From TrEMBL, chain A:
Residues 186-301 form the Na+/H+ antiporter MnhB subunit-related protein domain. InterPro entries: CPA3_antiporter_subunitB, MnhB, MrpA_C/MbhD. It is found in: Cell membrane. This is Multisubunit Na+/H+ antiporter, MnhB subunit. Its main location: membrane.
UniProtKB/TrEMBL annotation, chain B:
It is found in: Cell membrane. Belongs to the CPA3 antiporters (TC 2.A.63) subunit C family. This is Multicomponent Na+:H+ antiporter subunit C. Gene3D superfamilies: 1.10.287.3510. PANTHER family: ANTIPORTER SUBUNIT MNHC2-RELATED. Keywords: Cell membrane, Membrane, Transmembrane, Transmembrane helix, Ubiquinone. It is a multi-pass membrane protein. The chain crosses the membrane at residues 6-27, 39-58, 70-90. Signal peptide: none annotated. The keyword Transit peptide does not apply. Its main location: membrane.
TrEMBL record, chain C:
Keywords: Lyase, Membrane, Transmembrane, Transmembrane helix. GO terms for biological process: ATP synthesis coupled electron transport. It comes from Bosea thiooxidans. The keyword Transmembrane helix applies. It is found in: Endomembrane system; Membrane. This is Formate hydrogenlyase subunit 3/Multisubunit Na+/H+ antiporter, MnhD subunit.
Length: 310, 114, 507
């Protein structure tokens, strides 16, 4: 029975993906991609990975979806398309891609048995971190260097996006509010944020021991902030505004500071002193949640378009 | 067959298929926005392969190996950042092209040129 | 765990600093704003150079690789950093180029102070430092996924540099570059996933010790190498490079062409040498050499045909990268002689470093020319050597290295590769090396000829250019020439730490 459900889910996912690719209309393709992102979240639940499921729905589906929808609205009617490929060319590419998929499928089916895994090692080390959620332990202890560098990647993407502003307005504010704000949007922007903030804080708080964590919480907070800005209830901040800069850099800076302290008071860079691991990790996660929220919202908002208020 | 079609293997195969679909979109689609979407489908497929690996590696009281899960979370955030940068470049490009067509490209934008 | 694993060595913390210090500077500049950007960057450049030199000194003094286990979480659960002799050479080369380019940019941005509210300048400094961190992370990385994050860091730092001037043409080049780089990293990531599924580890040292016969490993490595080739711009995946590298401001072009494309090449080398099953490695080596030879010939001809100086230099980059790929079959080694004991190994490493120095010098010289005359159309630059003798000299000296004419690092590199090609029985590679040298001579002399021409109406600079700008380019060109003093034999530094890897499989 569950196998049938899984098969249906896979079939639906593949159908949506094909639909996204072959669909002529840009907008309907993107909406199909949004649905694809939600279904993918379900697939991750079936793979017993609730942390990934939450991240996928929040960022992979929702965040990317909003980004693409906003882009489509701007590009509509003026996107320059390249020369379409010939039918024979497309067929050749299709055959090539099918071969890659087939080879990959074979590789997936022929993985070593018993499956190699780090689950026991991760479980054994969990005690030293004081955490209950092994995924959080991987992200913030065992492989914390990845997470630290990835925070810098997000910041660089934002700097890159901001660098695309015209020269004079570079340190000004982006434009988020559409020309006409639909009534329901304003209504939602008034009632949703208090709930969203509670949900975000809850997700961050349980992340140490249960599914949830900084990215998921950060995305929810970012969504609430974007909603408020889109409805025009609060203007987007200047990109050079100190409070925004503090929110963006605070998480990585605290992470780095604790990492360096680890090389003095613990066993090395990015190590946590015994017994203090959990409170330190929770502190880092709190700061990172704010940084992620600010960065994601600003990435969606785009480069500055209005000169700064000086 | 039923044994090999555990959820892990099934979604791994789904991921393999998505990789092909995403690559096809990236190579053949004439629109740049859709190529960015294609990158996301390709990414989703790759992440599912990681998911299959994680699911197979369940043990020690965990239903799935936490390491690949964490890698996927990092990967999703990087993929989102990449999409955001690509979309911003695409928007800027279309703005500049429209400005050029109308002859209104701001002269100040040339000043950074070295 | 296994008896042989990563353990933090004395001086290992330097590796962390090499990766993390530029990141700290990025945060500081971001927090303090445009006004202090150049000052923070300059301080970091000095400190970073000192760290790179300290790592090299430590390597030579101890004669063994440096390692650091991050957070004391040992691989496979945790992540290790490791620098052997080759990594050390890469770190020092990167530091030299980044510091010189930084000094150049400091002077050049000084000429345009306040232009555009600091957007281009601030972004440049942020990205230069981030790029440095990413390169160092690639050179000392030991974990396949950590290397993926480092590659993405590199992409996100490099792409905005391409379109700093904000023209439609460069934004388009940046977007194309980003798409190529993204697909490349995704293919790399896919291979990483397959390797984890097969072996349950991402640690290169652990992987290098496993008995590696499975076809799944070869498939995974093939995906990773193809992805990395797209980033390294090897023919026929080079289409994104010329517009991107030619459109960036000169200091950015210099780091992109000299350093950024080297990171994927370095990783391919590590995968083929340390992880690939021997038979698959041999086949991959042959294929890579064919593509490398095609790159050399095709893109050298393309370089000859360019009307714009910077596009010419960019095509030359693709051609010179080709030389790094013909090393693979030549440095295959044998039962008695490990790859890193061969002359081709030393030749390849020298080619990598001398090209980095020479190419950075060329792009900086081209930047001076564009700054002085306001354009870089070769045909309209007749007699520019009179106005900018130092830049013309920098261009010429750097050209020596690209052509492989003594005395220069490029000469030693190409001489070693040529000898290896003859000894190992690859006449077609020997012929390619010679033809590539002649073609490089063609495009370099075209510019030198223009520089020395005596046109009816001499070109006059639009504005005077500070001597210090020219000196930065000249310094790099001279360094590329000085590399030619390296003795013509397998070079000791490049072998440090390699033995440990080979011995690792033994009990």
């Amino acid at each position: 029975m569950t196998l049938l459900l899984d098969l249906a889910l896979v079939a639906w996912l593949l159908a949506l993906a094909v639909h996204v690719v072959v669909q002529r209309g840009e907008r309907s393709a993107i909406i199909a991609f949004l649905a694809f992102g939600l279904l993918l979240g379900l697939a991750w639940v079936r793979l017993a990975a609730p942390d990934v499921a939450l991240t996928e729905i929040a960022i992979g589906g929702g965040g990317t979806g909003i980004l693409l929808l906003r882009a489509e609205a701007v590009l509509r009617g003026r996107g320059k398309e390249e020369e379409p490929m010939t039918r024979a060319g497309k067929l050749a590419v299709a055959v090539g891609c099918a071969a890659i998929s087939a080879g990959l499928g074979l590789a997936v089916l022929s993985f070593a048995s018993p499956a190699p895994t780090l689950a026991p090692a991760a479980a054994e080390a969990l005690g030293a971190t004081g955490l209950g959620n092994p995924v959080t332990a991987v992200l913030l202890a065992y492989r914390a260097l990845d997470t630290l560098l990835e925070k810098i990647v997000v910041l660089l993407a934002l700097i890159g996006v901001w660098s695309l502003a015209p020269d004079g307005v570079w340190d000004g504010a982006p434009e988020v509010k559409p020309a006409i704000v639909p009534g329901p949007l304003t209504y939602l922007a008034r009632i949703l944020p208090p709930f969203g903030i509670v949900i975000g804080v809850y997700m961050f708080w349980v992340g140490a021991d249960a599914p949830g964590g900084t990215f998921q919480a950060g995305t929810v907070l970012a969504a609430m902030w974007l909603l408020v800005m889109m409805a025009g209830l609060k203007p987007p901040p200047d990109t050079s505004r100190p409070l925004l800069v503090l929110a963006l850099t605070g998480g990585p800076a605290l992470f780095l500071a604790i990492a360096f302290l680890g090389s003095i008071f613990a066993e090395g860079f990015l190590a946590y002193p015994e017994g203090l691991a959990k409170p330190l990790i929770v502190a880092i996660e709190a700061a990172l949640t704010l940084s992620v929220a600010a960065a994601l919202a600003m990435l969606v908002a785009g480069p500055a378009r209005k000169a700064p208020a000086r | 067959m039923t044994a090999s079609l555990s959820p892990g293997a099934l979604f791994g195969l789904c991921g393999a298929a998505l990789v092909g679909i995403g690559l096809y979109a990236i190579v053949t689609h004439p629109g740049l926005l859709r190529r960015i979407v294609g990158c996301n489908i390709l990414g989703a497929g790759i992440f599912l392969v990681f998911g299959a690996v994680a699911r197979r590696g369940g043990g020690a009281g965990f239903e799935a190996d936490p390491v690949p899960q964490a890698l996927v979370i990092t990967g999703i955030v990087v993929a989102f950042s990449a999409s955001a940068l690509a979309v911003a470049l695409l928007k800027r490009l279309s703005e500049l092209n429209v400005g050029e067509r109308n002859g209104t490209a701001a002269p100040t934008e040339q000043r950074g040129r070295l | 765990m296994t008896p042989f694993a990563h353990a933090t060595t004395p001086g290992g913390f330097l590796l962390v600093l090499a990766v993390i210090l530029p990141v700290c500077a990025v945060l500081a500049i971001f927090a303090c704003g445009p006004r202090s950007a150049a000052r923070i960057a300059m301080t970091t450049l000095a400190a970073g150079l000192a760290i790179a030199i300290a790592i090299a000194v430590e390597l030579i003094a101890s004669g063994a690789a440096l390692s650091y286990v991050v957070g004391a979480w040992r691989p496979p659960l945790g992540i290790a950093l490791r620098a052997d002799g080759l990594s050390g050479a890469m770190l020092v080369m990167t530091a030299l180029v980044v510091v010189t380019v930084g000094l150049f940019a400091r002077v050049q941005y000084g000429l345009h102070d306040g232009a555009g509210g600091g957007r281009a300048q601030t972004t440049f400094w942020l990205m230069l430092l981030a790029l440095w961190s990413a390169l160092n992370a690639v050179f000392v990385g030991e974990d396949l996924f950590n290397l993926y994050v480092a590659l993405e860091l590199l992409t996100f730092a490099a792409v905005p540099l391409v379109c700093l001037d904000g023209r439609a043409e460069t934004v388009k080049a940046a977007l194309r570059y980003l798409l190529f780089a993204l697909v490349g990293s995704l293919l790399y990531l896919l291979g990483t996933g397959l390797i984890y599924g097969q072996y349950g580890t991402l640690d290169l040292l652990t992987l290098s010790r496993l008995s590696r016969q499975e076809p799944a490993l070869s498939a995974a490595l093939a995906l990773m190498i193809v992805g990395l080739l797209a980033k390294a711009a090897l023919f026929p995946l080079h289409l994104w490079l010329p517009p991107a590298h030619a459109g960036a401001p000169a200091p950015a072009s210099a780091v992109l062409s000299a350093l950024v494309v080297k990171a994927p090449v370095f990783l391919i080398l590590r995968l083929v040498l340390d992880v690939a099953p021997p038979q698959a490695a041999a086949i991959a080596g042959q294929l890579l050499a064919v593509l490398g030879a095609a790159s050399i010939l095709f893109c050298s001809v393309m370089a000859l045909r360019q009307a714009r100086l910077k596009l010419m230099i960019a095509y030359s980059t693709v051609a010179q990268i080709g030389y790094l790929f013909i090393v693979f079959p030549l440095a295959a080694g044998s039962a008695e002689l490990p790859p890193w004991g061969t002359i081709a190994w030393t030749g390849g490493a020298l080619q990598l470093v001398s090209h980095a120095l020479a190419k950075a010098a060329m792009f900086l010289a081209a930047g001076v020319i564009a700054e002085a005359f306001g354009h870089d159309r070769i045909a309209d630059l007749g007699g520019f050597g009179r106005a900018l003798p130092l830049s013309a000299a920098a261009f010429g000296l750097a050209g020596l290295s690209l052509m492989g004419i003594p005395p220069s690092g490029g000469f030693v590199a190409k001489c070693l590769l040529l000898t290896a090609a003859v000894i190992e029985g690859y006449p077609w590679l020997a012929a390619t090396i010679l033809a590539g040298g002649l073609l490089a001579g063609g495009y370099v002399f075209r510019v030198i000829d223009t520089a020395l021409a005596i046109p009816a109406v001499p070109v006059a600079p639009r504005r005077p250019v500070p001597r210090r700008l020219e000196l930065a380019a000249l310094a790099l060109a001279v360094a590329a020439v000085l590399l030619g003093l390296v003795p013509l034999r397998p070079f000791g530094l490049l072998q440090i730490g390699r033995d440990g890897l080979a011995m690792a499989g033994l009990p």
